Amino acid sequence: MDRATATRLLVARLTDEVVVSNLGQATRDLQRLGDRPLNCYTFGSMGQCSSIGLGIALARPDVRVVCLDGDGSLLMNLGSLCTIATLNPRNFALVIWDNEVHMTTGGQPTATAFRSSFAGLARGAGIEKVLEPRDEADLVRAYERILSEDGPFVVPVKIEKNQAEGRLERDVVGYARRFRQALAAVPAAR
Amino acid sequence: MADASWSKHMADVLRRNGLRLFATVPDYIVSQVLEHLWADPTCTVVTATREEEALGILSGAWLGGERGALLMQNSGLGNSVNTLGSLNVAAQLPVVLVVSHRGDLAEFNPAQVPVGQAAERILDSLGIRHLMPRSIADLEAQADGLVTLGYTQSLPVAFLLPAELTGGKLG
Prior knowledge:
The structure holds 2 protein chains of 2 kinds.
Chain A: H1 3-11, E1 18-21, H2 25-34, E2 39-41, H3 49-59, E3 65-70, H4 71-75, H5 79-87, E4 92-98, E5 101-102, E6 108-109, H6 118-125, E7 129-130, H7 136-146, E8 153-158, H8 172-184
Parallel strand pairs in A: 1-2, 1-3, 3-4, 4-8, 7-8
Antiparallel strand pairs in A: 5-6
Helix pairs in contact in A: 1-2
Chain B: H1 6-16, E1 19-24, H2 30-38, E2 44-47, H3 51-63, E3 67-73, H4 74-89, E4 96-100, H5 113-125, E5 129-131, H6 136-153, E6 157-161, H7 163-166
Parallel strand pairs in B: 1-2, 1-3, 3-4, 4-6, 5-6
């Protein structure tokens, strides 16, 4: 599966959900394929994508939050899986684009290229809803579940090793402000 | 001798400035503040595995409309440096840091000293305004002003809590 296709399939199903994207590849694909004010892009602080999403989910329990993380990044913050399991937010899903490499820095292998598995790590942390889509049809079914059922979900997705196309827009302050205003405009507690 | 009510004063500063979400990696000293917050049904306290993770959670919560604080030891401030810079300062996401200041007067653990001595300069280097109140009167005189400044600038601000205020940690 390639990340751009997997991103497009998600974007096509979004309404008023928040999407938080990991620095580098995930953010570049999401900007190019589905820029919208309820996207929360990250540009630095590698590893914090899932934690930022968790904070949004805590502050707005009425809004569904989907994080698009990367394997190298989540490996920097594995404790996040334990905190997600402990707090157990039902409006939260963590999708992990797992290409088994640090793509942005030249394709150096990560631990998932060898023995480690995010599904196993997530279950060990105490996450009950772990989905492992193997093809596009599986992925679509996973999206339908995370966008309708109670979570938290962790969804590791094995993807091809390719660089995102296009140029990353880096208006860090502007995107954060746009996102905060857009989320504030989503009416509270329906 | 430190007045044990310092921790309630600190908790009240945070609450009266509209903070309701608190993240922490526990520490003997800041846990005295957390006791008041755990007991308050209007407040949420989240225990994180590392301080960077806590900053991620609090930054997300700010983007979702919630004010929050990170309560930690100054070793946690050392862990936090890149996230404070690349997330909170770069994207202008305010957060209040409440840091127990180890590694200064009466410190018994050599491992606490280097980062404790560096704490103020770490904050200065990142352009993060900070206070080190030496007494409850000192805390009460300046605390609301510091929190107000943080949200005015949309940047982190820090309370460094010295042993003169808190009584420190006995070896």
